[in-house]
């Protein structure tokens, strides 16, 4: 949902009311039977404003903590192909779409990736997906047949491929896409994709 300036203020007052504490303080204000205009500084309205303010402060602190955690994660480094078969380390936030990333054993990886090759002869690797689906067992992923022979850094020297895929969506178990490499097209490579959140 998109939150704009017109939605923000009412939602800040309505969300805390949904709690039992907020509802208990709002009911006396609504049931007030004065035929004259309600005073602006009535105790129930003040308590509702305090409750809204506390709720906003709590969410601001949570957002700040999440921002700081994201900053810490984005400072992690990963090996990126810089050209001519050479790899160098870059921080996660400096990685762009199309970069070739070398994922090392027992390390986190920064984004959704397509497995091009593996150090195992059959091109398989094992990925833990606990951050995505809560399962701690390892998932088997297999490299594409057309890129399976990329077993050393130097083999990426002249590598150029095009990936055409669907727009981002919340589905973890379906993927539509094609990899075009040396006039060959590989399609429906869900089992070759690393997903990361």
UniProtKB/TrEMBL annotation:
Signal peptide: none annotated. GO terms for cellular component: plasma membrane. The gene is ALA7. It comes from the Eukaryota. One of its GO terms (biological process) is phospholipid translocation. InterPro entries: ATPase_P-typ_transduc_dom_A_sf (IPR008250). PANTHER family: PHOSPHOLIPID-TRANSPORTING ATPASE (PTHR24092:SF150), PROBABLE PHOSPHOLIPID-TRANSPORTING ATPASE (PTHR24092). It comes from Dendrobium catenatum. GO terms for molecular function: ATPase-coupled intramembrane lipid transporter activity. This is Phospholipid-transporting ATPase 7.
């Amino acid at each position: 949902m998109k939150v704009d300036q017109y939605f923000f203020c009412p939602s800040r007052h309505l969300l805390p009311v949904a709690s039992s504490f907020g509802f208990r303080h709002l009911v006396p204000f609504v049931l007030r039977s004065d035929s004259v205009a309600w005073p602006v500084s009535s105790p129930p309205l003040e308590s509702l404003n305090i409750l809204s303010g506390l709720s906003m402060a709590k969410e601001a602190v949570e957002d700040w903590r999440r921002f700081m955690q994201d900053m810490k994660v984005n400072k992690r480094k990963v090996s990126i192909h810089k050209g001519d078969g050479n790899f160098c380390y870059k921080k996660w936030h400096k990685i762009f779409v199309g970069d070739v990333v070398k994922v090392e054993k027992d390390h986190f990886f920064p984004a959704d990736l397509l497995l091009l090759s593996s150090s195992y002869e059959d091109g398989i690797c094992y990925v833990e997906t606990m951050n995505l689906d809560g399962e701690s067992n390892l998932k088997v992923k297999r490299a594409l047949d057309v890129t399976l022979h990329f077993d050393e850094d130097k083999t990426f020297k002249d590598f150029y491929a095009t990936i055409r895929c669907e727009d981002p969506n919340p589905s973890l178990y379906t993927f539509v896409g094609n990899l075009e490499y040396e006039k060959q097209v590989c399609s429906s490579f869900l089992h070759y994709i690393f997903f990361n959140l």
